[in-house]
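lol forgot to send this yesterday, sorry. struct tokens for the thing we talked abt
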């Protein structure tokens, strides 16, 4: 019985530790960080420098965070984004993705689209 209770406590401790490792994004901090760097190409998130840069406003923060992590690790290749993501901390990624995710976007999915 005590072995089961110990296993439950260890499981809870590990789960709590994993949650603590992922920072919570701060929208205001993300806005400041995005204006300093991201806006040069991505503009306000809806109006980009030109059509080759993706619109980030309204994107899912989890999607943006995965993309930034992939650029940072080299799994996703782009010379500009790879260099930009290389120095981002986990908190920077959480903040910037929370900011862009909080914006109203003009990006939409293809629900209801007919060929």
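and heres what i got for the seq, position by position
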């Amino acid at each position: 019985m005590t072995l089961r209770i110990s296993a439950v406590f260890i499981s809870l401790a590990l789960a709590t530790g994993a949650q603590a490792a992922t920072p919570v994004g701060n929208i205001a901090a993300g806005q400041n960080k995005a204006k300093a760097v991201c806006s040069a190409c991505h503009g306000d998130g809806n109006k980009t420098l030109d059509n080759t840069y993706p619109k980030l406003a309204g994107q899912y923060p989890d999607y943006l965070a995965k993309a930034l992590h992939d650029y940072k690790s080299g799994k996703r290749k782009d010379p500009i984004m790879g260099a930009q993501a290389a120095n981002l901390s986990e908190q920077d990624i959480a903040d910037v993705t929370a900011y862009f995710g909080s914006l109203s976007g003009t990006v939409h999915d293809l629900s209801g689209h007919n060929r």
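Helices lie at 2-21, 27-42, 61-73, 79-86, 90-102. anyway ping me if u want another try
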